Amino acid sequence: MDSDEEDFVFYGTPIEREEEVTSRKKKAVAEASGLLRTLPPWKQEVTDEEGRRRFHGAFTGGYSAGYYNTVGSKEGWIPQTFTSSQKNRAEIKQQSILNFLDDDEKGEMEGRSLGTSMKFDTFGFTAAEIARKQAEKEQQQRPSIIPGPAPDELVLPATDSIGVKLLLKMGWRHGHAIKDSRTNSLYDARREARKAFLALSSDHKAAQRTGSEDVKGDLGNIVELPMDNDHQSPHSTPVYVLNPKQDLHGLGYDPFKHAPEFREKKRSRLHEDKELVNRKPLSIKDNLFAFRSGRVAPGFGIGALEELDAEDEDVYASGYAFEETYVQEIEEPTKQGVDKTKKRSGKEQGVLPGFKLASNSDYQLERFDPPVIPKDFVPCHKFPALLDMNTKFSDGSPPEIPPPEDNNLKILIEGVAAIVACCGKLFEDLSREKNQSNPLFSFLNGGDGHDYYSRKLWEERQKRNDRKKLELDGKVVLSIQKMTAESRGKILGERPLERSSKDLSSASTSSNVKLQFHLSDTFTKPESFNEVPDAAKPFRDDPAKQGRFEQFLKDKYDGGLRSKDSSGASNMSEAARARERLEFEAAAEAIRKGNWGKETSHSNQQMWDMPTTTSLQFTSAGLEKVAQVEELMKKMYPKREEFQWRPSPILCKRFDILDPYMGKPPPPPRLRSKMDSLIFLPDSTKPVKVEETAAAFTDSLSVPPPGSEDITSKEATGEFQNDVEVENVERPVDLYKAIFSDDSDDEVENSSPNQVEDPEKKNGAVSTTLNRLIAGDFLESLGKELGLDVPPDLPNSENKTRVSASQKDTVNSKRGNVDTLEVENPLIETLSSEKNRSGKVEHGKGAQVDRHRNRSSRSPVDERNRKHFRRDGHRICNSDSETTSSEDYRDLHHSRSKGREKGSSREKSSRRKHSKHRKHERGDSLSRSHHGSDKERGDAKREKRR
Amino acid sequence: MSGGGGIGELPRKEASVLKGHEGAVLAARFNADGNYCLSCGKDRTIRLWNPHRGILIKTYKAHGREVRDVHCTQDNSKLSSCGGDRQVFYWDVATGRVIRKFRGHDSEVNAVKFNEYASVVVSAGYDRSVRAWDCRSHSTEPIQIIDTFLDSVMSVSLTKSEIIAGSVDGTIRTFDIRIGREISDDLGQPVNCIALSNDGNCILASCLDSTLRLLDRSTGELLQEYKGHTCKSYKMDCLLTNNDACVTGGSEDGIIFFWDLVDASVVSSFRAHASVVTSVSYHPTDSCMISASVDGTIRVWKT
């Protein structure tokens, strides 16, 4: 440095730089913002406006008076009274707000606690409270079975909240989505697209390169897709039907969870039972052997299984081949169910009341050893004519039958035959059952056109068998491997995929519509089922998976019997199955939306690859797992997301760019719903929030940096303005308040633009702005006529409290929202957990090796949640402005000795609100000005007149 | 402009060695016209060099800790630097005085850049935030804080209307001031350094899995990956040559690599330093490059 100085020649007197002149002042500011918060409290110095160390006077404490230059003590404002610790050792001093209130204030408070009036009961809290009290009262009058007060969750307010009322007025109905369907569907679509991207294929690398255009188009498609069907947004608010609890199960227990087939049965039985009971209400049998019906005495063990269903009987008795039935049930639920009930009823008749089956009966199950497997046995089974197993009757070909005259019937028959041929006899039984009363389907029961039907069915089967034989012959060599899901799918009569479209198309494409119509009793969603063969085969490359997918579709849309997870996926792990299910859901959704183009199938093909790479249980080629994972990572990333971001106006200015948000109200942040705009929340944009949270977060001593506070509060003001205006339009203008509201606020803000502004104050001020505007003319003319001065000030504290209260409420409700929004996406999660990133980055030798953060293991979902949370955090900040604002005040006070006259009116209005609480917080700075406040008030008034 | 991407065109010959830093040199940067270069390092100094003549012009001392990044305005009148002392310094080049110190980052500041008009300094820090500081006003508070990052922000780049930053959370986030959007490209690997192509259409990201990745900025598509070097724990620069023909970057073993932009093959690689190559900077027009290393030297490479 010194050598460098020699290069320069200096003339004249150096002009002292501005920075140096005000350096002390600057230092004070900088310390206030930066340094102070890093220091422990006992090291901090109190300085005055000029940056000098505060001096209290030689006899009043010198440089450090009181408790770190405050008048308080460690315990707070009031010094603790002395208590002998010997006598009462653990007496905890309880402080409450009453300790800090004057007598008159206490009197004011007495018997009047704040609460929302019914009129402004935005969130129904008051209504809920009333309802709860009502319930309590009722509780006392007639005791219920459950002792104790009713749980809060069970008591619901009788009235809808104002928000719901408003929504209803706007045309919203229960069960509909409230959110902005457009943005949300966009968001969903993006998520969908991301999901698709996640699954970029590994074995299609080359194809991928060339087909990257495809993927792009695909993305575009998906993004555009939801625009078309906005109206049927899949996410809508759930309507909660409060079903009375009529059984004695534990809450949430569903005995039919894994056996949905029996649910229907149970319901019908229950019905019957009721009738029966009605007929002979006091059946001795029922009373004596109550365990048989189970409803009366939920004892140990089987108590939860209230109905004596087939399975439930004799849980502890032997002789019931439980496992066997389980396996079989998976294969063919209906038959088994029927069989079982038959068996059961037979058994039941044999048992007398008062007797139970012997646990060890004479009758022993004869057991046979399994046959010895010959050595040359190849564990591979060919299925030469698999469907014939189900169709013993149709071995001989039925004679050729002319089709019935009725064209509709013909088409119907053909369609049913085709489906039965591919889906197996099960389907026939099913549709027969379901359409028993339907004359159109009489052909199933041997009525009209039955012969034609059987002929058709036979034909279809022939066709299929021929094809399958061909296939199998070609595959014999390969098929030495274990029975794959594919072959199992074939046994089960599922459709293998790629070849299947042809035969059905004759029936389904030509007469798709009619068939749909006729079959609509059978299927809740016929079109999607019918569409599967010809339109969408997302998993074309893996027939087994496609089989499962179709099974899934059937399950999803049939509404009938469910043979869940039966379709040969038994060798998949739970996780893999769940993942696949998710995938299926996505695919089904896409199919339903009818936008299942070839590109999608392409990307979905990649989607399928993911489970194999993560849990290689299904592919035979699981060798290059590592390579695949790597490949997968490559395909997964990069993924792109877009968010709203709001640059600060000054940044735009400095970049010489027009502020994209100039003059605009802050755009809704991510995932904002219509609801938000309805509850008049000052929903500021993200960047602002981020700044505020950052400020709140980073300042360990929570001293807000004045500059940033400045910006945010300014921005916040803009937002408040908007929202509050909306609010104001709704309610009647309080003219008096409008006229006599405090004008001094404006003055203060105008005169000291660089000073820290209190957001809450602004809030209040803004809320009256419109009122003032409306009443402005009137005020002027009135003033002139009367020749009077306008009284300067009337604190509009009522207004303020209401606003802040509503804010708080909103925060609460918001938090609830977010909680429900947290969607777990196992897919993403597993992947993200896989990436094992080292977050450490070194600077030079060992700069920060130890500073490793494992924050990077967060999944994208987390990130989203975090953002939500952040938003909430901000709101909490915003609404709890009590604390921050009081600090603001303190700051204000320090930096404003000259402008005290201006500030005085402001102080006064605030003082009323914060009362003593704040007085001690503000410490001596206030105490100085306190005794002169009356005078100041006068000053302010005088200034006003001038 | 130098011509195509032949090996002969690449700066592989050592023209001079700039010695002076004690300890590791953490960054070396050409100025806007390429006549001078700036370096900064663990010795808490910033040095201004004439790399072509190999002489030290000036030393800037004010930082209390290591200096991690330095950037110079287009008109060469101001500097900004940042480092371990959690501050961003705004310097006057001629006098060597600190005009302003921007405090606000909660931890080390990794990277700093001026915008085109030298009115804003944008810094990226270990505290997961990117902050924009106003050089025009006297305020020392950030005019914008971006803290959507999940981890340390390692590198920042500016265009006329965008702020682009790469973070250890694996994302490259583009903040478009014109439309007020944040675009996040998740690479899945911690991003160490980002560099814009000279045409501004692509972005090169150095990831901690020893891979450079080239992204299309408009679509977010991964265009190419460049491998062969080692980059696992150090912040190391990467960049595109001034004709966008090659991608270059250092390695932790002291080797500098040149890859062909299109087919990602290693065009050239040579041992440049005894230790980690922390920084590389390419001359804006000529075929000349400087590299800085933990071994304390800055080397100038020419054809």
Automatic annotation (TrEMBL), chain A:
Keywords associated with the record: Growth regulation, mRNA processing, Nucleus, RNA-binding, RNA-mediated gene silencing
GO biological process: mRNA processing; regulatory ncRNA-mediated gene silencing
Alphabetical list of Pfam families matching this protein: DUF1604 (PF07713), HTH_TGH (PF26093), Surp (PF01805)
Matches recorded under SUPFAM superfamilies: Surp module (SWAP domain)
GO cellular component terms, A-Z: nucleus
Signal peptide: none
Domain SURP motif, first and last residues per copy: 412-454
Organism: Rhododendron simsii (Sims's rhododendron)
InterPro entries documented for this protein: DUF1604, Surp, SWAP/Surp_sf
One GO MF term attached to the UniProt entry: RNA binding
Domain of life (superkingdom): Eukaryota
Name of this protein: SURP motif domain-containing protein
PROSITE patterns: SURP
Automatic annotation (TrEMBL), chain B:
Superkingdom to which the source organism belongs: Eukaryota
CDD domains, A to Z: WD40
Location in or out of the cell: Cytoplasm
GO process annotations (BP): mRNA splicing, via spliceosome
One GO CC annotation: catalytic step 2 spliceosome
A Pfam family: WD40
Hydrolase as UniProt keyword: no
InterPro entries reported for this sequence: WD40/YVTN_repeat-like_dom_sf, WD40_PAC1, WD40_repeat_dom_sf, WD40_rpt, WD_repeat_MORG1
Keywords assigned: Cytoplasm, Repeat, WD repeat
Repeat (WD) residue spans along the chain: 18-59, 60-101, 102-134, 270-303
Family (UniProt): Belongs to the WD repeat MORG1 family.
Protein name, per record: WD repeat domain-containing protein 83
Taxonomic placement: Eukaryota, Viridiplantae, Streptophyta, Embryophyta, Tracheophyta
